[in-house]
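Section 5.1 Outputs to date
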Amino acid sequence: MRETGDTVPQRDLMDLLARVLHGKPKLGDTIQIPPKMILTVLPSFAANPTVGLQLGISGNAVTRLGSDYEISVSTFSVKVT
């Protein structure tokens, strides 16, 4: 016995209405493309019995290197107290 796979993509009424009213969707509308770099800066504080109260600022950066199809992520962290 031979198994047959689906050769027709699944669609519902909302897919058909969206195609009729708006045309074919753009790639940016269907797949969200993340930014190349994300930067986060937050205040930091700590309390230690031997040192006391520490105040500072922390930063973190995440960047993607290479093309959009290659996933090569680099992270950088900095803390100043």
